[in-house]
């Protein structure tokens, strides 16, 4: 069985749990190690007991750098009791630095995979700091065996033009995980909930502009549209997230949820899925293909996106969704203000007509991923290959 050491920036991140589920479903054994955003260590993630590398703070670059430096000194002893892995996956740049230290601690040629699912704005600056960050990434990734990323726009707009990574690229989209096989004929979904119309904004809630836009839109429509928020708000990005939501008559926050367990339920409670992010406007936010895009479409929620983004281009190719020309309440009202049952029915029918494989990974995809990783682990010079020799 392939043994993967998974180094992550936040062990409680739901996306980390999703990847662990995929790796285990594909037949891999996983050891999890990483930082946390909580006061105390995380006891368990998907049956695993994480190796705690310390606490970091969201949005605190200097603090995170100090934490990485401290962890680099102690990671050998932290990992000392675990068996040597066949492969290390480093999620994000800071963990790539620690992956190299871990590799040295194991005193074996353990292949490293670099998983990069967002391009931080610091990496794109044209000043000394930006150039230094890109140089550090090129240096740390100089001999990684595979780059895993989630959007072709990350490759076209960052990795290729800046010449960051020489390794092969695996495009692993942020699809919903189906525990069972996805039937090519499975295009059914529960009947949509009754009006008022509901827009669901689910996942990592970090975009203040989206929150304010949706609030103003709901006020303009005087309750014809309700906004349902679920997930983990980045409180560092909002002056008072909970106070703002409570003060808005047609906004509500339903708290966190479990993925994939709760996805069908929460998306079937809404008519539309908000697939817009202005958190890093013009950069990462325009290049990503977010989880909520795939999850919402899988369960028949009609996606709303900006037309000029990678998400918008993707939806346009599929012939589905509501694409806005501008990020304003007026544009949203022009697109949806006159919505009626029959027009929504057409929008939803187009989403449900798409092949569900577009939106979902199943166990066969998980096995294919693990087999690809296994091929890296048994390549000449790797620890697994040495063990088999």
How is this structure best described in words?
The protein is of the alpha/beta class. Helix content is 40%, strand content 18%. The protein is built from 15 helices and 15 strands. It has helices at residues 14-25, 61-78, 93-106, 128-140, 152-162, 208-220, 241-247, 263-267, 284-287, 291-298, 310-318, 329-336, 341-353, 363-377, 383-388; strands at 3-8, 29-36, 51-55, 87-91, 112-115, 146-149, 169-171, 176-177, 197-205, 225-233, 251-253, 272-274, 302-306, 322-324, 360-361. It has a seven-stranded parallel β-sheet with strand order 3-2-1-4-5-6-7. Strands 11-10-9-12-13-14 form a six-stranded parallel β-sheet, sandwiched between helices. Helix 1 packs across helix 14, helix 2 packs parallel to helix 3 (93-106) and helix 6 crosses helix 12 (329-336). The chain is globular, with a radius of gyration of 22 Å. It starts with a strand and ends with a helix.
């Amino acid at each position: 069985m392939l043994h993967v050491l998974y180094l992550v920036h936040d062990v409680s991140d739901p996306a980390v749990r999703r990847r662990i589920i995929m790796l285990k479903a594909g037949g891999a054994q996983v050891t999890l190690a990483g930082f946390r955003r909580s006061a105390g260590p995380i006891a368990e993630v998907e049956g695993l007991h994480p190796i705690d590398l310390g606490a970091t703070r969201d949005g605190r670059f200097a603090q995170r750098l100090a934490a990485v430096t401290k962890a680099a000194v102690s990671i050998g002893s932290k990992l000392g009791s675990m068996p040597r892995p066949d492969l290390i996956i480093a999620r994000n740049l800071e963990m790539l630095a620690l992956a190299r230290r871990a590799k040295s601690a194991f005193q074996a040629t353990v292949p490293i995979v670099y998983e990069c699912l967002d391009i931080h704005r610091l990496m794109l600056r044209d000043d000394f700091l930006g150039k230094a960050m890109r140089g550090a990434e090129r240096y740390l990734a100089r001999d990684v065996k595979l780059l895993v990323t989630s959007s072709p726009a990350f490759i076209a707009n960052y990795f290729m033009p800046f010449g960051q990574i020489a390794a092969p690229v695996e495009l692993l989209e942020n699809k919903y995980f189906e525990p069972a096989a996805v039937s090519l004929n499975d295009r059914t979904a529960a009947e949509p909930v009754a009006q008022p119309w509901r827009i669901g904004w689910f996942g990592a809630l970090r975009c203040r502009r989206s929150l304010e836009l949706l609030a103003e839109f709901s006020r303009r429509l005087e309750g014809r549209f309700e906004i349902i928020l679920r997930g983990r708000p980045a409180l560092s990005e909002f002056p008072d997230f909970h106070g703002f939501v409570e003060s808005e008559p047609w906004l509500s926050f339903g708290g966190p949820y479990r993925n994939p367990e709760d996805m069908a339920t929460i998306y079937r409670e809404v008519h539309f899925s908000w697939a817009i992010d202005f958190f890093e406007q013009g950069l990462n936010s325009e290049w990503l293909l977010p989880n909520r895009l795939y999850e919402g479409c899988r369960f028949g929620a009609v996606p709303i996106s900006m037309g000029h983004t990678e998400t918008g281009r993707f939806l346009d190719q599929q012939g589905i969704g509501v694409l806005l020309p501008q990020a304003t309440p007026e544009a949203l009202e022009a697109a949806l203000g006159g919505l009626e049952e029959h027009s929504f029915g057409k929008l939803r029918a187009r989403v449900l007509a798409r092949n569900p494989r577009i939106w979902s990974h199943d166990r066969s995809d998980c096995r294919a991923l693990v087999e690809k990783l296994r091929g890296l682990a048994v390549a000449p010079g790797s620890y697994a290959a040495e063990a088999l020799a």
